[in-house]
Amino acid sequence: MGKNIYLDYDFNGQIDYIDKVKESLLLNAKNKVPLAFVKTYGCQQNVSDGEKIKGILSLIGYEFTNIEEDADLIIFNTCAIREHAEDRVFGNIGALKYIKKKYPSTIIAMCGCMMEQKHIEDKIKTSFPFVDLVFGTNRLHKLPELLYTVVNSKSRVFECGLDDNKIIEGIPIRRDKRFKAWLPIMYGCDNFCSYCIVPYVRGRERSRRPEDILDEATKIINNGYKDITLLGQNVNSYGKNLDEDINFAQLLNRIDSIPGDYRIRFMTSHPKDATKELIDTISESEHICHHLHLPFQSGSNKILRLMNRKYTVDKYLNIINYAKSKMPDVSITSDIIVGFPGETYDDFCKTIELVEEVRFTSLFTFIYSPRIGTPAAEMNDPIPYEKKVKWFQELLKVQEGIAARNCRDMVGKTYRVLVEESKGNKLMSRTGGNVIVEFEGASDLVGSFKNVKITEARNWILKGQMI
Ligand code: SAH
Ligand code: SF4
Ligand code: F3S
């Protein structure tokens, strides 16, 4: 595999396009300033891309609206992970047809993971003629140029395809939140879990240079952000193909040494690459949350093999038990797929057993959805969907009981929380373990850390008192 290629955002080139496109966008705007509506679906990686899209649009001179009818530019940043996600996008995009009819100058664009699938591109070409611009996950830095082409060519623009080992640095970012920041440390994925579309729509795994990450982290912290989430599809394999010899634990260590009052999280960890060194780093750090999001997908070794996950239940439990021994307060969350092709009720029961053994803080659970082009989509899948739904509900019920028990166990203990929101005289906050705690306090505490004693656990909502 070749070395990564690092390119600075072609500022000069794109700035030219910004200057050239500004005037016509202003001329066509419904209001004094052009307005954009940007809707993002899917994971944090996509949310982070959405913040870059908004960063570029701000630079062009756009302001933002939540009302599609008011917008001069509508962008749907899409997710392809499950069929349901794609159906929602098509439903919502279909509803834009009347806006295009009413205001023909509105530019309608689609981008993100769905766009990197040929059959989706074809469907948009034939069935959604009012979509003006389609661009893929590796092309968002070219947005000014693409808008320029749409405005001037008066034809539809399709710009997809993966630039596999490229990383574009220096794209402007307009962050959605004031205290929470996403910080991608790598892009793409090389794991090819047999059910998953991500490697096909995001391209090969490539890590950002540590100095670029540290630079961005320092800026974020100095700008007052308190909660930083490092992003990657498999952060544990950070560092491959870099000139410098560095792994994820070492990167974490370096970020942790930036002075300031903040906390760090990361997602997603892949169990096959989770090491004791990583757990030691977290437990000895000053800023890293005692929170591990470690998706196990299935509790059956047979299914894990079919999924191409490259670990066993024993290996998974080893790392979990090591984490618990080093950090008794560690909060563990996970993703699970129910109804993978070939899964029997017996396999499913092994998933339940694992859920009961680990006692996760929370779970993201999904019913398997076949994705065109992935190996699992070709596997024999005899279990009817209705049965999978039943299993799924059984799993939810087990987890509800565990979550309630976990919450009760927190009563009487004190946690350091970050206050995220105020509602009346109530404050919503989050522990390092990502559990939401409600307590009374003034709105000027939003954005600060407080110590809160948990007084009550009601329906998985924790109530507390500031001390
Ligand atoms: N890179 C992360 C996961 C990214 S996708 C990891 O490896 O853990 C988020 C979650 O979506 C996955 O963990 C998986 O549980 C779920 N998922 C992915 N593909 C799916 C599919 N085809 N059907 C159902 N769930 C899926
Ligand atoms: Fe998908 Fe597996 Fe990569 Fe996660 S690690 S993004 S589940 S292929
Ligand atoms: Fe969806 Fe793409 Fe993320 S497929 S889950 S938005 S990487």
How many strands appear in the DSSP assignment? 21
CATH domain class name of the largest domain: Alpha Beta
- Beta-strand content estimate: 15-25%
Measured between the Cα atoms of the first and last residue, the distance is: 54 Å
Mean model confidence by pLDDT: 95
Q: What is the total number of structural domains?
A: 4
Rounded to the nearest angstrom, the radius of gyration is 23 Å
Give the structure's gist in a few sentences.
The chain has 467 residues and is α/β, with parallel strands linked by helices. It has helices at residues 11-28, 44-60, 83-94, 97-102, 118-127, 143-153, 198-202, 210-222, 248-256, 276-284, 301-306, 313-326, 345-358, 385-410, and strands spanning 5-8, 35-40, 63-64, 73-78, 107-112, 133-135, 157-159, 166-169, 180-184, 186-187, 206-207, 227-231, 263-267, 291-293, 331-338, 362-367, 414-423, 426-431, 436-440, 449-458, 461-466. The chain has four domains: 5-159, Methylthiotransferase, N-terminal domain (Rossmann fold), CATH 3.40.50.12160; 177-289, Transcription Regulator spoIIAA (2-Layer Sandwich), CATH 3.30.750.210; 295-302 and 322-409, Transcription Regulator spoIIAA (2-Layer Sandwich); 414-466, Nucleic acid-binding proteins (OB fold (Dihydrolipoamide Acetyltransferase, E2P), Beta Barrel), CATH 2.40.50.140.
